[in-house]
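It is worth pausing here to work through a concrete case rather than discussing structure prediction in the abstract. The textbook approach is simple: state the sequence, then state the predicted structure, then interpret. We follow exactly that order.
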Amino acid sequence: MSELSIRIGQGFDVHAFGDGDHLMLGGVRVPHTQGVQAHSDGDVIIHALCDAMLGALALGDIGRYFPPGDPQWQGADSRRFLRHCDDLLRTQGWRIGNIDITVICERPKIGAHADVIRRSLAEELVLPVDVISIKATTTEKLGFTGRGEGIAAQAIVLLAMA
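Step two, the predicted structure:
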């Protein structure tokens, strides 16, 4: 193992909008005029966070553990993925120092939901809320998110030796 006692990971996820009346974001049901096209519940926040956690551990990406073609993950609650990643890092002697997440979309507006999402993630990961940041941005109507075709999220996580 490296002699450094910290690690940083980053993750990114994207889903196209599809049929539905809500999005799952950080384990929170957020009302919206559309859902997402996804094999699981399509929670871009949790998927990006899982990739960041796995990346910090040098363990690949979320698809290695939860392949999108595997029927057992059809419609799965992404919090199961997050718990698995959290178990991996804790088993290896790491703890989360902080999490920084940016959601990229024109709609829905994330600000009204940010604190609820932070609390949801903090509860799931047994962390203080003040180590989790949820931000949002648009792409100024450029690209697929700007045209309202989908939603994306990026996450950065800092791990420290427990």
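Step three, interpretation. The helical segments are 44-56, 62-65, 79-91, 114-125, 143-146. The mean pLDDT is 95.
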